[in-house]
Amino acid sequence: MGNGYFKPTKYKLRCLACGREFTEDNHLLSCDADHGPAFLRAEYGEKQLTVHEEASGMFRFGDWLPLRRPIENSALPVAYKSEGFASHLGLSNLWIVFSGYWPDRSADMRTCTFKEQEAPPVCSRLASNDKTLVLASAGNTSRAFAEICSANGIPLLMVVHEAGLACMWSTKPFSDSVKLVAVTADADYSDAIRLSGMIASLPGYVPEGGAKNVARRDGMGVSVLAAVITAGRIPDHYFQAVGSGTGGISAWEAAQRLRADGSFGNAGMKLHLVQNHPFTPLVDAWNKGSRKLLPMDEAEARRRISQINANVLSNRRPPYSVKGGVYDALADTGGHMYSVTNAEAQLAAWFFEETEGIDLTPAAAVAAGALKKAIERKTIAADEMVLLNVTGGGQKRLFAEHKINYLKPHLEVRRDEISEEAVQRLFA
After folding, report:
1. What DSSP letter does each residue of 321-336 carry, written as one string?
2. pTM of whole model > 0.85?
3. What tens digit of pLDDT does each residue of 201-231 get?
4. Are 165 and 409 a contacting pair, CB within 8 Å?
5. Is the pLDDT of residue 305 over 70?
6. What is the full DSSP assignment across 21-88?
């Protein structure tokens, strides 16, 4: 890291289904025992949260991140108590945790997305650069990983569908270690996931792992840690827009660690997760009381995805049913899910910018739009502590103040050309 401080973390991994313990990490993504799908969870040697001010960026919370090697990073969300947007909504204890570019509040996450918190611990958890890291993205995740991998010279191959290509920008030049593959011909995020999985199975590549990767989840959980350290207590309610729901799972896991710490109260932080109407597979399943996602044919899913403004919320195969996944997180916290239209999100974004002074990305606007619905439904009280995770903001200001570099695809693959044979030919 920039100032030379680094401390590897003591941790082990535990399977949430069978309880099996793994003391050697080796980028493990799942348990190989004979049971249904289940997440691994990191258990850290340090049970109380210490903020290491001498570390850079989010590694100040390194005791609760699976760190194995130094990585240059600067990602650090900023938390504050809202006055303007809170007054607009009639809330007396609304807190914002902001990931993005907002110099007035010392927020300097140049990718303007909290996905920048995923990449540093994921890269640190990798023992070496011997293999190329492979990931699929709807746009924001790939931008964040490209930023961190470029800064650290880590080999990275990203698979992004057409709608996400506009997200592939940076205020810095991209390193030659970073490669972009575009999936074309009306492809969506699920097509990118399918192609990336095929590539990652080849020799010389390693899958990033998505929600299965404990480093990704615990990196996103830093938003909750930063907010709680600033506010001094665990919130009563947590709001976030979700595509896969991994951010909601991450917040739940972080809150569990904070409760076990005992220094920040014993609030059972209730999850309020939000999707962009009309593509709402998580909302639909949860409101039906189903542990499994409801059937939706591919054509209908693609039609609905085409109608949402927050394209990064378009995961067709979210980790909902898996042990330790979205369903369990909502059930454990007595949580709620909301569907917010494009118009509702845009109105919320306008009020937020007018009252707080910074622009929101489309996904963050979706989360802000749910607060009004929660008040109307009386799922939150006006005096309870509410935490709104602004997962991206300040992009308008960043573009006005900085030169923007775009990463062009190194290779394009049509959706109807994705096959094992084609992957062997192009990437082996």
Report:
1. SSBTSHHHHHHHHT-E
2. yes
3. 999 999 999 999 999 999 999 999 999 999 9
4. yes
5. yes
6. EES--TT--S--SSSS-B-EEEEES--S----TTS-GGGGGGGGS---S--------EEEE-SHHHHH
